[in-house]
């Protein structure tokens, strides 16, 4: 499928086939989750917890994704990146991050998010090094890792920079480690 | 119509001051009041820094010393202070805000958001307008307008309110002191004021834009 048809598919899905939630409810809910985690854990642990939460979301979200889009397997990792940015993010967050910074072997790329609905109105606390340690939207990394694992792609997903921390852009990096072979469960034939 | 806003103050629902900012050097027409205040500041400014900075719950009876001590802190931050402004003006605006609080609580104040009923009183040539929400958040503005400009001010009140909403929507901003895990009481209000630089800049920008139009 071409890039243009991805866009029209995702616009169509967003307009017609997706239930919407008020953005402030969503933002404030996620914000209160992060704020509460920050009260209970150190910032490094918060990042881990957010990633774990995202992972569990991603495992389930990917089924929803395939149900709504009806897409088949991607032909290449490049194709995967297009689907993630143009359809996946569009469907669930109504944003379209840009795919850039491909590595030479085609196994790593970056997603640049120019606006992030999770971080509306958010300012990181100025004390305690939040700006150096906390990745506020780390749940997104977990979601992507979970979704990709369900399609047999073992990836590392991590933030490289974040506007909340004072960086100029918000950038996530995806690195493909390996393809997961379908393992036959023990005891079956 | 060239009415200017002299000051903005924001007050929380239990009548604690959140933020006060002044904008325009007030040309005093009534010298007698200023002289009186001069005497007070002359006397009290001997030792302002030692006084406790926190403002008590019952604001109606807090002392002049508290105001001055607070002004010391606020004055260091205000970038709009030029040589003409003085702690007298801040004191005056503080008094006016406190007078406004009494009116908010009086039975004559209609707390529906009528656009033409915001004028609270006029004192010393400053017309004081107030805006209160049902959560108890109050905005007090003092302006130089000679006639009632309540409806013109209404969008300004709304903008200030929206800026405040953006501030409190931050999940890390704690409006009421909560204990964090080390038992310290931390948060946005430890001395009864909003510290946030971005918020301060937005309010300044909103009012200076309004003043210059």
UniProtKB/TrEMBL annotation, chain A:
Quick check: keyword Acetylation in the entry? no
**Annotated signal peptide:** none
Cellular component GO terms, alphabetical:
endoplasmic reticulum; Golgi apparatus; TRAPP complex
Protein location: Endoplasmic reticulum; Golgi apparatus, cis-Golgi network
Annotated Pfam families: TRAPP
**Domain of life according to the entry:** Eukaryota
Q: Which residues form a coiled coil?
A: none
What's one GO BP annotation on this UniProt entry? Golgi vesicle transport
Q: Cite the entry's keywords alphabetically.
A: Endoplasmic reticulum, ER-Golgi transport, Golgi apparatus, Transport
Family, according to the entry, reads as follows: Belongs to the TRAPP small subunits family. BET3 subfamily.
What name has this protein been given in UniProt? Trafficking protein particle complex subunit BET3
Provide the species name: Pachysolen tannophilus NRRL Y-2460
Q: What is the lineage of its organism?
A: Eukaryota, Fungi, Dikarya, Ascomycota, Saccharomycotina
Automatic annotation (TrEMBL), chain B:
A Pfam family annotated for this UniProt entry? Sedlin_N
Name any Gene Ontology BP term.
endoplasmic reticulum to Golgi vesicle-mediated transport
Look up the record and report any one GO term of the cellular component aspect. Answer: cytoplasm
Chain positions covered by the region annotation Disordered: 40-62
Q: List the PANTHER family hit by this protein, alphabetically.
A: TRAFFICKING PROTEIN PARTICLE COMPLEX SUBUNIT 2
Name listed for the protein in its UniProt record: Trafficking protein particle complex subunit
């Amino acid at each position: 499928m071409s890039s243009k048809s991805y866009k029209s598919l995702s616009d169509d899905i967003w307009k017609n086939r997706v239930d919407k939630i008020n953005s402030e409810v969503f933002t404030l809910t996620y914000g209160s989750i992060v704020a509460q985690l920050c009260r209970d854990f150190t910032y490094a642990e918060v990042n881990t917890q957010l990633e774990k939460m995202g992972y569990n979301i991603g495992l389930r979200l990917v089924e929803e994704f395939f149900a709504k889009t009806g897409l088949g397997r991607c032909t290449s990792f490049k194709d995967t990146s297009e689907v993630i940015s143009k359809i996946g993010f569009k469907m669930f967050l109504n944003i379209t991050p840009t795919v850039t910074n491909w590595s030479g072997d085609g196994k790593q790329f970056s997603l640049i998010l120019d606006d992030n609905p999770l971080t509306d109105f958010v300012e990181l606390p100025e004390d305690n090094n939040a700006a150096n340690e906390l990745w506020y939207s780390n749940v997104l990394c977990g979601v992507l890792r979970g979704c990709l694992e369900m399609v047999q792609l073992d990836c590392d997903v991590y933030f490289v920079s974040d506007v909340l921390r004072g960086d100029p852009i918000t950038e996530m990096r995806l690195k493909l480690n390996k393809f997961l072979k379908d393992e036959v469960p023990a005891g079956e034939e | 119509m060239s009415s200017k806003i002299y000051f903005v103050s924001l007050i929380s629902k239990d009548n604690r001051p959140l933020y006060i900012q002044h904008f325009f050097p007030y040309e005093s027409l009534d010298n007698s009041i200023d002289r009186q205040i001069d005497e007070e500041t002359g006397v009290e400014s001997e030792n302002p820094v030692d006084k406790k900075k926190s403002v008590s719950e019952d604001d109606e009876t807090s002392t002049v010393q508290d105001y001055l001590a607070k002004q010391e802190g606020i004055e260091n931050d205000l970038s709009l202070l030029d040589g003409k402004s003085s702690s007298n003006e801040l004191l005056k605006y503080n008094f006016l805000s406190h007078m406004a609080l009494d009116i908010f609580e009086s039975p004559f104040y209609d707390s529906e958001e009528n656009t033409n009923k915001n004028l609270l009183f006029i004192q010393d040539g400053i017309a004081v307008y107030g805006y209160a929400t049902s959560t108890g958040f109050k905005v007090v503005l003092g302006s130089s307008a000679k006639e009632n400009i309540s409806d013109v001010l209404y969008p300004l009140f709304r903008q200030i309110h929206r800026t405040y909403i953006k501030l409190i929507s931050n999940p890390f901003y704690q409006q009421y002191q909560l204990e964090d895990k080390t038992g310290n009481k931390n948060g946005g209000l430890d001395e009864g004021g909003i510290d946030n630089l971005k918020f301060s800049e937005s309010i300044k920008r909103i009012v200076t834009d309004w003043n210059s139009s």
